[in-house]
Amino acid sequence: MTGLQFQIKFLQKLQNHISKDLDIRTIDIQYYMDRGRELYVDEIIQKYRGQEEYRKRLGNLLQTSNITRPVDSNAPEAGIRPNGEIWDISTLNARHIIDEFVSISEVSERIPVKPVTNDYYNKQSKNPFKSPYNKGIWRMDVGEGKHELIAYMDSGTITNYFLTYVKHPALSGQSGFLDVTENSTNYLEVPVGFQHEIIDKAVLFALEVFQISGSLRARIE
Predict the structure, then answer these.
(1) Could you read off the pLDDT of 138-154 as tens digits, one per residue?
(2) Domain boundaries, the chain
(3) Alpha-carbon distance 196 to 198, whole Å?
(4) Tell me, what's the pLDDT at 185?
(5) Mean pLDDT estimate for the chain
C-alpha cells in the first residue's frame, strides 16, 4: 500500500465516524498512522504469540540476531549484580523480545535466557532451585537498550547472545518506511493482507483523541 493509499483509507474510515468535514491537508496523518503501527504490533504480540498467525501478521518486523561477544575495549562491562554482564542490544531497535539464548564457553548446548524483574531477582537470587544454573540464566533490563545477563557461579564466558525479537515499526520518514508524500513507494514491513488493520488501529486512536479534545492533531508545516 502506498503512502497516498494509507492517507485516503484513513481519512475515509475516520470520516464515517465524525460528522464534520475533515481536511486532509490540516490533519497530522503521519502521527496517527505511526501510532496505528505500534498498536498493531502490540496487539499481535498479546493475541497471537506462539501461533503461526503470529509470524504471518508480523512479517518483516520479526527478526533474529546473533550478537558475538565484543572484544577489548568494547567487551561487556560487569553488571551491578554478581555474575552479571551488560550487553548492548540498542542497535536492534527491539520492541519485544520473543526468545533468547546464550552460548557459554565449555558448554555445548545453547542456554535459555529468562527475563526477570528486580523483585524476582531479590526474592530468588539465593534460592538454589530458582537461581541461574547451566540450563538457564537470567536477564534484566537496565535501560537504554541494554541487558544485564546474569550467569551462574563459576560459569564460563558468554560468547554469543541469540535473540528473536519484534523490532519497532519504522515511523514515517525513517529508513524502512515510506514518506507519505511519495506515492510510488510501498510499505513492506507488514504483509499487504494485514495493512488495513493498521489503518483501523490508527482510526480508533484518532477517535479517542477527538472524543477527548474535540479536535485532531494538526499537521505542522
Answers:
(1) 999 999 999 999 999 88
(2) 3-59+170-213, 61-167
(3) 5
(4) 58
(5) 87
Q: How far apart are CA 121 and CA 18, in angstroms?
A: 50
Task: Go through 116-133 and write b for each residue having 16 or more CB atoms within 10 A of its CB, e for each that does not.
Answer: beeeebeeebeeeeebbe
Cα separation, 219 vs 221, whole angstroms: 6
- How are the residues of the chain apportioned to helix, strand and coil, as percentages rounded to the nearest 5? 35, 25, 40
- In the chain, what is the straight-line distance between the N-terminal and C-terminal CA atoms, in Å? 24
* CA atoms of 24 and 91, how far apart (whole Å): 35
Instruction: Give me the sign of the Cα torsion angle 198, 173, 169, 205.
Output: negative
> Which residues, 6 or more positions from 208, have their beta carbon under 8 angstroms from its beta carbon?
none
The DSSP secondary-structure symbol of 114 reads E
CB burial class (10 A; 0-12, 13-18, 19+) of residue 153? exposed
